[in-house]
Amino acid sequence: MTRSKTGPVLTASDYQHLARELVDADVWDFIEGGAESERTLRANVSAFDRLRLRPRVMTDVSTVDTAVSLFGAGHRTPIGVGPTAYHRLVNPEGEVATARGASAVGALFVVSVFASRSLEDIAAASDGRLWLHLYWFRRREVMTGLIRRAEDAGYTALVLTVDAPRIGRRWRDMRNGFAIGGDVAAVNIDAAVMALTHHSDVGHSAIADHAAQSFDAAVTWADLAWLRSQTRLPIVLKGILTAEDAALAVEHGADGVVVSNHGGRQLDGAVASLEALPEVVDAVAGAIPVLFDGGVRRGTDALVALALGARMVLLGRPPLWGLAAGGADGVEGLLRTTTDELAHAMALAGRPRLADLDRSVLRARPGGEL
Ligand SMILES: Cc1cc2nc3c(=O)[nH]c(=O)nc-3n(C[C@H](O)[C@H](O)[C@H](O)COP(=O)(O)O)c2cc1C
Ligand SMILES: O=C(O)C(=O)c1ccccc1
């Protein structure tokens, strides 16, 4: 167990407090911050307060099973690491350490296209549960190049983020004139495509300026056929919040969706991720797996999302806290703790298998709705 000056590190919040002491203030703002007034960021976390659990008893919970399979591959936990950019901002080993930590617990790691270590080095440090995340770049050869490399290195699915035709107005980053500096870089993308990301300018986020230049904001559902034609890997669309878009995702051949508002970093005022989950699950009606991210901080949060129909839950900020606090061991500890909390909650709720988790686990608090 990791220890800090103030005692054992037991919870995601413990890792968060440790990380805060170790990370530069502008990097901390980049990680923790959301768009504009951060309403959606707060809503993602507080949405979990509105639900209560309905435990069943005497159901033989002597063994609890958290294993799940997705696109033919097994994972020991339904809690994975979502795509977040530039892990070397908080640890010199960056995504290589994250991959080692995730592998130690048999968890999925979705590698950001803005990773600060090479796709191949990350794959070498992993036991194989890797997906690659992509943004839609104007220069499509950047995408096809990355897809080929990911296939060759053994990545098993693609996650296309669809909620960021431009980057949200993140006031903290704009005030800080946040730019990616030092020797941290998006090493998997041609340096010429990345130039603006290193240009600091108060009042601007360099990340937003770079995205305005390099992301293709003209993409529509019809373009998905092009991506489909480039690879046999499953394609998962990340950033779906409505029944309408969930139905379109199925119609256009997506292999999965992630219900997400990008951790409150894109459209401020967008629905809390948890609030959107039931309508997306209903619209998809079992056709493809639905994954979830946003505001998951404890095993009971994961339990709630799984009970609402998510097949897997991704964590954005918490693995970065683990990585900053303790490198690969910190990522491992964070994921192990959260998975242990989930198994514990499943036992106490009387549902020892993931298949037992359905809406009967939940009720709204009096005066609320599911
Ligand atoms: C520092 C940081 C970087 C991120 N980078 C990406 C990214 O490159 N691509 C992406 O699709 N989402 C990115 N996200 C969003 C996460 O994948 C995820 O949707 C969100 O963080 C989930 O919410 P949570 O932090 O409450 O768990 C990033 C989030 C953070 C905090
Ligand atoms: O996606 C994000 O939230 C994000 O922070 C980011 C990082 C690098 C490039 C583009 C977006």
Automatic annotation (TrEMBL):
PROSITE patterns: FMN_HYDROXY_ACID_DH_1 (PS00557), FMN_HYDROXY_ACID_DH_2 (PS51349). InterPro entries: Aldolase_TIM, Alpha-hydoxy_acid_DH_FMN, FMN-dep_DH, FMN_HAD, FMN_hydac_DH_AS. It comes from the Bacteria. Pfam families: FMN_dh. Its cofactor is FMN. Keywords: Flavoprotein, FMN, Oxidoreductase. Residues 4-367 form the FMN hydroxy acid dehydrogenase domain. The keyword Oxidoreductase applies. PANTHER family: 2-HYDROXYACID OXIDASE 1, S -2-HYDROXY-ACID OXIDASE-RELATED. Belongs to the FMN-dependent alpha-hydroxy acid dehydrogenase family. This is Alpha-hydroxy acid oxidase. It comes from Dactylosporangium maewongense.
